[in-house]
Design goal:
It is built from 2 helices and 7 strands. By secondary structure, it is α+β, with helices and mostly antiparallel strands. It folds into 2 domains: 46 residues, no CATH class; 86 residues, Immunoglobulin-like (Sandwich), CATH 2.60.40.790.
Length: 156
């Protein structure tokens, strides 16, 4: 039996989902509105942004990060060892906008940084990142040593 590290914020999120299930999310959606899945856990919003999908094939690791409305110049992607870091800043509403003209402001702003551990070594000098339609697409080529090798089995 292997022991998994205990993550208090993951446990709190699990408890929150269980409470929502018991109380019926639809019945209490107005009660839970300002407390989104992330904002319920203080300090976690900047660590869970942007939302990502990770996939791989034999040659590359692919990361798709959902980051709408960002200035591409405000995005930073770096690879160091087995760590991928996506960071940047979500700009606030323009300062010349009067507060009495704002009817609703639900989108968070500020700096963010998301660090991901990669399962294999990558060639950091060949990483490509493209931002289009609110999605940051990152292609991380695997090092030759990390690529699967076909080994011929000899009979005899």
């Amino acid at each position: 039996m292997s022991l998994m590290p205990f993550e208090i914020f993951d446990e709190m999120a699990r408890m929150r989902r269980e409470i929502d299930r018991i109380l019926g999310e639809d019945r209490f959606s107005s009660w839970t509105f300002p407390f989104s899945r992330i904002s319920f856990l203080p300090g976690r919003a900047s660590q869970a942004y942007p939302l990502i999908n990770i996939s791989e094939d034999s040659n590359n690791i692919y990361v798709d990060a959902l980051a709408p409305g960002l200035d591409p110049d405000a995005l930073n992607v770096s690879v160091s060892g087995d760590q991928l870091v996506i960071s940047g800043e979500k700009k606030p509403l323009p300062k010349n906008l009067k507060s009495e003209n704002i009817h609703r402001s639900e989108r968070s702003t500020g700096q963010f940084a998301r660090s991901l551990s990669l399962s294999v070594g990558v060639e950091s000098n060949k990483v490509e990142a493209n931002y289009a339609n609110g999605v940051l697409k990152i292609v991380l080529p695997k090092m030759e040593e990390a690529k699967p090798k076909q080994i011929q089995v000899k009979v005899g």
